[in-house]
């Protein structure tokens, strides 16, 4: 696809022979004599593409010849890595024409870095360094004598992905780290042992589906994140009427909600701050933990001769969702202490079998929101359930004094719904959630139930 869709019709088109040079001999991307291209000056932006071959068009800036590069008349020299990336053949004929930098300005650029720490000042300096320069796919950007290194991963202009373009003062630079600190939380609510509409166990969707695809994408991208995986759940002791029914050494773990129910939160750390090239063994260990999890929770406080009230695993909506976000925040907000200069970026993933609806405490929600916004930490919620017919994520506040329910949609959480690859349906495909009872169907067929005209339905036979 050409980088520019609009080219000045009055620009003179010139044909040149292409030769290549190495970065050791000349650091410039494109070298030619400005007098060979009418109206050109050193530093101008030109569009270059093969004359006889349908290939991507490339935008580069003109640089003057150096002592180590001999440029004959009607010859251009391109750096060999650029020529290899965009399939330019040496000694082939190429077309070169001047372009207006404003017409090929980029809207946004994604820059990727790894194994180093980027402060906000470093990002600002790189943005200033790239301004009014021409960049292309996989271009290596170095700053401060090579101590700060990154590469161009993706570029967008006028709504399309492009292979090269000009960075101006309005271009937005997005920095992405391939060596970040990642916290993965898996909610082990009661739905995890249930099946979805396609017959998949929700835990299979989480581990065999989402996590497996995520780790494969990391491997393809070359990411090497530092990962911590935590399984969490909440157990309600609905039969308990008072705190004295619990053993004394267990009472400090038990809390009481706004309905007067006693509950306890459980957390199981599967791996902590690990970096793997192959995540297969980790997925196997998660499956083993899944089979053992209910028994481990049940026997957590078991002692011989000590009676403990019976506990029931909560649903996803009544789980300890905000509590696990604060666990990661406790670590992330202290990132400036004992900092690792090989890591940059912090994010939390919460995988839930629910649909993005949670019952939360108002005060805890306000604290979590403020901490996430103040620290600028990304929080992603991945739902394994079917997308509901109402807006999500949705919080319902626990009201102790009022019988009126208050709801809120948290804008500080990124929500996604996951489906197995071969079971995905389009968003415009309606899946009925409420089934008509067989007895009502039979009465409708017999004409014993009469509905208003606006509610007439056709019952399949």
Automatic annotation (TrEMBL):
Domain of life: Eukaryota
IML1 N-terminal double psi beta-barrel domain segment(s): 15-96
Biological processes, Gene Ontology terms: cellular response to amino acid starvation; negative regulation of TORC1 signaling; positive regulation of autophagy
Pfam families: IML1, IML1_N
GO molecular function list: GTPase activator activity
Domain Vacuolar membrane-associated protein Iml1 N-terminal: 109-397
GO cellular component: GATOR1 complex; lysosomal membrane
Alphabetized InterPro entries for the sequence: IML1, IML1_double_psi_beta_barrel, IML1_N
Protein name per UniProt: Uncharacterized protein
Lineage: Eukaryota, Metazoa, Ecdysozoa, Arthropoda, Crustacea
């Amino acid at each position: 696809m050409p980088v520019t869709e609009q080219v000045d019709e009055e620009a003179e088109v010139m044909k040149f022979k292409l030769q290549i040079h190495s970065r050791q001999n000349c650091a410039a991307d494109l070298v030619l004599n400005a007098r060979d291209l009418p109206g050109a000056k050193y530093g101008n932006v030109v569009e270059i593409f093969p004359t006889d071959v349908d290939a991507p068009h490339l935008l580069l800036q003109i640089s003057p010849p150096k002592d180590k590069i001999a440029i004959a008349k009607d010859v251009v020299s391109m750096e060999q890595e650029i020529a290899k990336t965009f399939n330019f053949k040496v000694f082939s004929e190429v077309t070169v024409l001047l372009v207006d930098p404003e017409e090929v300005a980029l809207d946004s650029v994604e820059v990727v870095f790894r194994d180093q720490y980027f402060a906000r000042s470093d990002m600002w300096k790189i943005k200033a360094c790239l301004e009014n320069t021409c960049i292309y796919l996989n271009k290596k950007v170095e700053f401060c004598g090579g101590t700060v290194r990154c590469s161009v991963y993706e570029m967008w202009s006028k709504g399309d992905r492009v292979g090269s373009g000009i960075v101006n003062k309005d271009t937005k630079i997005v920095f992405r780290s391939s060596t970040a600190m990642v916290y993965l939380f898996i909610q082990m609510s009661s739905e995890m042992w249930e099946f979805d509409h396609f017959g998949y166990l929700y835990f299979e969707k989480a581990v065999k589906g989402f996590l497996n695809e995520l780790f494969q994408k990391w491997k393809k991208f070359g990411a090497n994140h530092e990962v911590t995986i935590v399984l969490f759940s909440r157990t309600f002791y609905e039969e308990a009427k008072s705190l004295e029914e619990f053993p004394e050494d267990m009472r400090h773990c038990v809390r009481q909600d706004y309905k007067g129910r006693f509950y306890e939160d459980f957390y199981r750390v599967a791996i902590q701050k690990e970096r793997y090239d192959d995540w297969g063994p980790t997925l196997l260990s998660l499956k083993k933990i899944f089979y053992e999890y209910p028994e481990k929770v049940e026997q957590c406080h078991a002692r011989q001769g000590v009676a403990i009230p019976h506990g029931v695993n909560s649903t996803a909506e009544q789980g300890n969702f905000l509590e696990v976000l604060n666990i990661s925040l406790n670590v992330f907000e202290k990132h400036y202490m004992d900092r690792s200069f090989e890591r940059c970026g912090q994010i939390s993933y919460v995988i839930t079998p629910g649909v993005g609806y949670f019952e939360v405490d108002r005060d805890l929600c306000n604290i979590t929101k403020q901490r996430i916004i103040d620290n600028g930490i990304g929080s992603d919620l991945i739902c394994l359930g079917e997308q509901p017919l109402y807006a999500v994520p949705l919080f319902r506040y626990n009201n102790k004094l009022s019988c009126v329910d208050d709801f809120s949609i948290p804008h500080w959480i990124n929500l996604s719904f996951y489906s197995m690859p071969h079971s995905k349906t389009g968003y415009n495909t309606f899946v009925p959630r409420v089934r008509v009872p067989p007895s009502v169907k039979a009465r409708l067929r017999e004409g014993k139930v009469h509905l208003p005209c606006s509610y007439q339905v056709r019952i399949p036979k």
